[in-house]
Amino acid sequence: MAKSPEEQHPVKAFGWAARDTSGVLSPFKFSRRETGEKDVRFKVLYCGICHSDLHHVKNDWGASKYPMVPGHEIVGVVTDVGSKVTKFKVGDKVGVGCMVGSCRSCVECKNDLENYCPKKVLTYDFYYHDGTMLYGGYSDHMVADEHFVLRWPDNLPLDAGAPLLCAGITTYSPLIYFELNKPGLHLGVVGLGGLGHIAVKLAKAFGAKVTVISTSPSKGKEAIENLGADAFLVSRDPDQMKAAMGTMDGILDTVSAVHPLLPLLSLLKNHGKLVMLGAPAKPLELPVMPLLMGRKIVGGSNIGGLKETQEMLDFCAKHNIKADVEVIPIDYVNTAMERLEKADVKYRFVIEVGNTLKAA
């Protein structure tokens, strides 16, 4: 007979879990493995609520396993390290993002691209190498192989920094890979949510001119005055879109709703790049003619490897980039999920796990 989550491992753990596709979270007792020789264990202080957590708890992608403790934007303080750990010591501030494992031997892993390893192990709602279920950061503590643990820069706040572990690297990696990090480029950012607002800050730090593209005219003031964008474009306004045709070197599209790509392709200069970062549930229509006529590229990107994620954290610390967050107690998490579904947050909820998660 299979062991219960509480009996699976020797170390008791406590968090909040979804039990079914309602996505409603409630207190949950489970267990985590002992600290292995290469493991780092840490007390969770903060955990961001990523939009993908909402998709996972509601089984929007059809593969969710319950009970599920979400959370992959996790920061805290080391409480224990294995005998062969070299990078961390007790008391260090650390983070864990979207992955806690990979094969470590394929061509992707050898090139510091663990995020594209065919055997990568996600932080929650996934099975670990030993076949046991993994639980995420809406919990009192975490344990992970030191390779998948990130050193937290001293001057980066834990609460507003937590979302960088997913939203930060998801927008940083394509800027680097698609060479959109050169000063003087004109970049568009589609959607001003958790990913979009970080994309604006990163692009500005790289020296780009940034235009936010949104269906909501109400976000214009926020984009320019608070986030430092240079311009704002209402994608539903044909005159504004026409005036901006052929002006952008690259566009980061962070929208997960189904939306037309043709208007975005028309904004690109010849040889421009449209990079998809959102994950719409249905396929999008891709008109090929604009690609041919302007040698334009539509690409995609998904988080980043551990080396690049560390670079991103250090870059954000240096340039004072952090997420705009609303810090909440754990017992507000269901309300936060409802608000997230309505896009009623600027721009990321972060759970203050350390002070508000109490074992029943």
From TrEMBL:
Coiled coil: none annotated. Its cofactor is Zn(2+). GO terms for biological process: lignin biosynthetic process. Belongs to the zinc-containing alcohol dehydrogenase family. The keyword Oxidoreductase applies. The keyword Nucleotide-binding does not apply. InterPro entries: ADH-like_C (IPR013149), ADH-like_N (IPR013154), ADH_Zn_CS (IPR002328), CAD-like (IPR047109), ER (IPR020843), GroES-like_sf (IPR011032), NAD(P)-bd_dom_sf (IPR036291). It comes from the Eukaryota. GO terms for molecular function: oxidoreductase activity, acting on the CH-OH group of donors, NAD or NADP as acceptor; zinc ion binding. Residues 23-357 form the Enoyl reductase (ER) domain. This is Enoyl reductase (ER) domain-containing protein. Pfam families: ADH_N (PF08240), ADH_zinc_N (PF00107). Keywords: Metal-binding, Oxidoreductase, Zinc. SUPFAM superfamilies: GroES-like (SSF50129), NAD(P)-binding Rossmann-fold domains (SSF51735).
